Amino acid sequence: GAGVSQSPSNKVTEKGKDVELRCDPISGHTALYWYRQSLGQGLEFLIYFQGNSAPDKSGLPSDRFSAERTGGSVSTLTIQRTQQEDSAVYLCASSQQGSAQPQHFGDGTRLSIL
Amino acid sequence: LAKTTQPISMDSYEGQEVNITCSHNNIATNDYITWYQQFPSQGPRFIIQGYKTKVTNEVASLFIPADRKSSTLSLPRVSLSDTAVYYCLVGDGEAGTALIFGKGTTLSVSS
């Protein structure tokens, strides 16, 4: 079956521009997560969606970052007025609801801010 | 969430068994132990998960002592393709629980 799909796989943009990153989770997975991974580092949690509940935005590094999830499926992470420190790989994961359900990751979007 | 500690790197040769130990002294009663593998330019991939004793699947085994303050991921007869970063995570996996990834253990397998 299809896994988590992210697009684009690579994005290069100029400082100050806005970018949108897309995540298509596995069908039937109600939980969706966004993480950020800088070069050689572990993953940094950004935001979490679960069903129709209010998202957990506690990991978003600034108000330039936002995300939405439409119809409980596709999610879009938006970064406004990008800065060079935003350069990283942005990973999306989804899981089934319930305890100890493993998260399934996409291969990420590599974002480079010039 | 319980913090985990694991070696930064390990080296091995093809055909050897590799054991990566993770410490999680503050593990809570409801916490599970989960290991992920990550190759360059890919997202992490779930390997194995356990709560206590031993769990085995087609990829690896996970050994968890009775006090659950540590766990050991065992990879039998590694090959070059097992070169990757391995992450140990501890959490109850309930809805809303984001995974806390550290820097993981970089395993390098040589021929």
What does this 3D model show about the protein?
The complex is a heterodimer of chains A (114) and B (111). Chain A is mainly β and 114 residues long. Chain A has no helices and ten strands. In chain A, strands 2, 4, 5, 8, 9 and 10 form a six-stranded mixed beta sheet that branches. Chain A has a four-stranded antiparallel beta sheet with strand order 1-3-7-6, with no helix packed on it. Chain A starts with a strand and ends with a strand. In chain A, 33% of the residues are buried. Chain B has strands at residues 9-13, 18-23, 32-38, 45-50, 53-56, 61-64, 70-75, 84-91, 105-110. In chain B, 37% of the residues are buried. Chain B is built from no helices and nine strands. The model of chain B has no long low-confidence stretch (mean pLDDT 90). The interface between A and B is medium-sized, with 28 and 24 residues.
From the spread of the alpha carbons, the general shape of chain A counts as: globular
Number of strands of chain B: 9
**Individual helix count of chain B:** 0
In terms of per-residue confidence, which ranges of chain A show pLDDT below 50 for 5 or more consecutive residues?
none
Question: In what order do the strands lie side by side in the largest sheet of chain B?
Answer: 1-9-8-3-4
Query: Quick one: how many beta strands of chain A?
Result: 10
Feature tags:
A: 114 residues; mainly beta; four-stranded antiparallel beta sheet; B: 111 residues; 9 strands; 0% helix
Summarize this entry quickly.
The complex is a heterodimer of chains A (114) and B (111). Chain A has 114 residues and is mainly β.
SSE arrangement:
The complex is a heterodimer of chains A (114) and B (111).
Chain A: E1 5-7, E2 10-13, E3 19-24, E4 31-37, E5 43-50, E6 65-69, E7 75-79, E8 88-95, E9 104-105, E10 109-113
Parallel strand pairs in A: 2-10
Antiparallel strand pairs in A: 1-3, 3-7, 4-5, 4-8, 6-7, 8-9, 8-10
Chain B: E1 9-13, E2 18-23, E3 32-38, E4 45-50, E5 53-56, E6 61-64, E7 70-75, E8 84-91, E9 105-110
Parallel strand pairs in B: 1-9
Antiparallel strand pairs in B: 2-7, 3-4, 3-8, 5-6, 6-7, 8-9
